[in-house]
Description:
alpha+beta; Immunoglobulin-like; Alpha-Beta Plaits; 3 domains; six-stranded antiparallel beta sheet; five-stranded mixed beta sheet; 56% helix; disordered N terminus; disordered C terminus; diguanylate cyclase; 7TMR_DISM_rcpt_extracell_dom1; transmembrane helix; Diguanylate_Cyclase
Amino acid sequence: xxxxxxxxxxxxxxxxxxxxxxxxxxxxxxxxxxxxxxxxxxxxxxxxxxxxxxxxxxxxxxxxxxxxxxxxxxxxxxxxxxxxxxxxxxxxxxxxxxxxxxxxxxxxxxxxxxxxxxxxxxxxxxxxxxxxxxxxxxxxxxxxxxxxxxxxxxxxxxxxxxxxxxxxxxxxxxxxxxxxxxxxxxxxxxxxxxxxxxxxxxxxxxxxxxxxxxxxxxxxxxxxxxxxxxxxxxxxxxxxxxxxxxxxxxxxxxxxxxxxxxxxxxxxxxxxxxxxxxxxxxxxxxxxxxxxxxxxxxxxxxxxxxxxxxxxxxxxxxxxxxxxxxxxxxxxxxxxxxxxxxxxxxxxxxxxxxxxxxxxxxxxxxxxxxxxxxxxxxxxxxxxxxxxxxxxxxxxxxxxxxxxxxxxxxxxxxxxxxxxxxxxxxxxxxxxxxxxxxxxxxxxxxxxxxxxxxxxxxxxxxxxxxxxxxxxxxxxxxxxxxxxxxxxxxxxxxxxxxxxxxxxxxxxxxxxxxxxxxxxxxxxxxxxxxxxxxxxxxxxxxxxxxxxxxxxxxxxxxxxxxxxxxxxxxxxxxxxxxxxxxxxxxxxxxxxxxxxxxxxxxxxxxxxxxx
Length: 611
């Protein structure tokens, strides 16, 4: 019980983990990276600014108190404790600073001596941070009042703290006697503040606003990530969702937010088990999240197995904890804290290694998680008596959880954009011919079918040009394939420069090219085809030692009613072959009367075309 309580009462190191086409594209990436570097200083000082804000927010505004305490023993009575206080037999402490009160045996007695009040205003004694166990107040008339985080009967509920409403008489200086009842959770330091009711209500409202905003940010980021997980089918977003929601559960139990103001009374009595389970599961989700978010298979494949193993081990510990078998439950209590600490070290090491090896998301993880890890180490040190003045660390952990949620959400967005850009690059490579950078036959066919459908819907004319280089086989045979590749590259550049951006140009195969012209008449299309012939001929690419230069034969076909892409290409190809048979190096439009008279005949082979 104590081990599990330790995981609840203060964030362990692992709790922090659980909260934790080239020219234009290259230019854009460089600018983004430059902007990121220019703004890193702002991201670095944000956590520091938040810490300073907390130190101001938690500045004491209550009446001065003097305090003393001792551990409870058998046979103690309130009268004996008050008498010992009057004779100075108790250990003195400063109530405005954090003080640790043991609660593992019979509990501890605490006596607070207030200054005389100046008015008849009602005052409130608050204990912050809210202890996990119960605290009893002994009145001067002998009555007692006991408060706890999961208490739903008290007339005044403190948010993030326990609050006792006190009756005030002018000049009254009677000491206030409290008893911290025994608890199975780990003892944590507390401080005390005595305020007028109005001041307390204002401070309580400020804390409630602050905590609600932080939890709302974390939940909103988690829900948004879950939506993206469903839409993108990417488990990275799902692990982040579980990761963040578990941290919200841990923090809301520690601060009592689940009970006040949310009023989840059905959790009363089971918060220890729920919190311990959420702590363990958060580490599991964090491990699986880091494995995908930081891209361990690419940047740190050796570390992937232990990180994923940690993600599997933590749910097993939760199952042991919930088994209701004493031996297994004790085993879970023994394992949980060492595994949490080792897991935190493993994830920190993994994030640093992947970041140093070039994983950009790993830097987002470290930026969001490191401040929370520092706060966790500081709160752990407070249990040993260190840093008694920094009573705002617990609230800072809530704020840093919201900060981490925002940073990791930005990291997920950056990762999604990077993956989309990479996918687009792959798609471009798959759609483009590697030599000429024109659309390959598959990509051109898909685009041409789309353009043809649009033209039919809009009743626009479509012209299709089928281009075949003349004497290309002879060029390859006599000068080699390297010369042929250079010729194809030069021709593709000329064709691209002569056609409109809206025209669809692609390499159909070998030395064949196709172009689809949208919204042009046959006369205009013939002018374009003739211009292409002249431009290719003016390249003066020598085929042999004589005066023979590379040229192009072009067949033209206009879309007619009932045409498909295949029929359109077939007619343009037949018109191109007519050019081959009649001198090459010019363009010809398909004529149905010529087809009927047998003038057009498709070639049987490439050799026949080269004749």
